[in-house]
Amino acid sequence: MKATFMYGAGDVRVETVADPTIQQPTDAIVRVVRACVCGSDLHPFHSMEQSDLGRPMGHELIGVVEEIGAAVGSLKKGDFVVAPFAFSDNTCAFCRDGFQTSCPHGGFYGSREVGGLQAEFARIPQADGSLVVVPDVDPGAADEKLLASLLTLSDVYLTGYHAAHMGRVGPGKVVTVIGDGAVGLSAVLAARQLGAEQIILMGRHRSRTDLGVEFGATEVVAERGEEGISRVMDLTRGEGSHVVLEAVGHMPAYEQAYGIVRPGGIISRVGVPQYEEAPIGFGSLFGKNATLTGGPAPVRAYMEPAIRQVLTGEIDPGRVFDRVVGIDEVPAGYAAMDAREALNVMVKM
Predict the structure, then answer these.
(1) pLDDT (0 to 100) of residue 56
(2) How far is CA 84 from CA 59, 93, 137, 291, in A?
(3) Rounded to an integer, what is the distance from CA 30 to the centroid of its chain?
(4) Which parts of the chain sit beneath pLDDT 50?
(5) Strand, helix or coil at 124?
(6) Run of H or E residues at 159
(7) CB 270 within 8 A of CB 163
(8) Helix, strand, coil tally for the chain in percent (to 5)
(9) How far is 60 from 87, CA to CA, in rounded Å?
(10) SS (H, E, C) 172-211
């Protein structure tokens, strides 16, 4: 099969490797129908040290079950499934609490042992707990719009939803979303679904923020730093935002977040942080009685209702995909996203 590997910053290659096989009785093998390049994949694309041993890439897919291990009981060959970006047993104490990304028997894709999902076939550990069947859909006959929206449930839309959920977005709330990437735009859509009264989108790429407005943003702030903070404060009558959804992961975005959160408000971060140390003292969080929350989204916890929303047409998050490539073109997809020539790239197998 063909699969994607990264050997260093900017060095993405598609290689022919052996098809994955069942290694544990809880595994399943899935034929990939659609995968994608995620914004978080650009972090190693910018910073990974050169290596002779490539890192398998990709953590999102929709596909068809080809084979199951002896202990898999909820799936059968031919099932059309969505794979969350992290695998989990979905039965442990943390999974039952709705935090499947902390499952002690789970993990993340991208190692040589597990593999990546930007590939023609994938091995899914803990298949019973991880894979979710899409009912009554034939992927071979489904339209691209539906497939794109289902693919976002593997990560980007439900990561945006997780930000809003952890931020306790609800009716009457003023929400500011920092970041106009696919996750930020998904957070706008989720905030609208949860009833936010005012949704301010901080982003400066017009093609993206226009989609954000269609998703539900009431205002767009293109300024950054102190100018951006001042503009948001003006739009909120000097009070700031009840909830700030940070979907970038870099320090300037965090600084904007604590600059605009109102006293007693919540900052919910889902952009993978590229830092360990950050202000939490009197001038940032403590003085405002502000709450800091968020983390890697347990998308498995939200999957079934989100699938229903997609199938009924209540939400159409697949609009974040604005470029489609084949498996051989994945390196060009990375380059297009890095150059901001594409918002989110879908890989069609």
Answers:
(1) 98
(2) 8, 19, 18, 27
(3) 20
(4) none
(5) strand
(6) helix 156-166
(7) yes
(8) 35, 25, 40
(9) 11
(10) CCEEEEECCCHHHHHHHHHHHHCCCCEEEEECCCHHHHHH
* CA max distance for the chain: 61
Q: Write down the pLDDT at residue 14.
A: 98
pTM of the model: 0.96
Q: Which of 272, 336, 207, 237 is nearest to 40 (CA)?
A: 272
**Shortest CA distance to 158 belongs to which of 5, 332, 307?**
307
| 208: Cβ contacts below 8 Å, ≥ 6 apart | 180, 181, 185, 343
Which stretch of DSSP H or E encloses residue 229?
helix 225-235
Amino acid symbol at 212: G
Q: Is residue 61 a contact partner of residue 32, using CB atoms and an 8 Å limit?
A: yes
Reading the block at residue 285, the tokens are 């969080």
Cα–Cα distance measured from residue 343 to residue 105, given in angstroms and rounded to the nearest whole number: 33
Residue type, 290: A
Both tokens assigned to 114: 């597990």
SS3 state at 283: coil
Here the tokens at position 117 are 């999902």
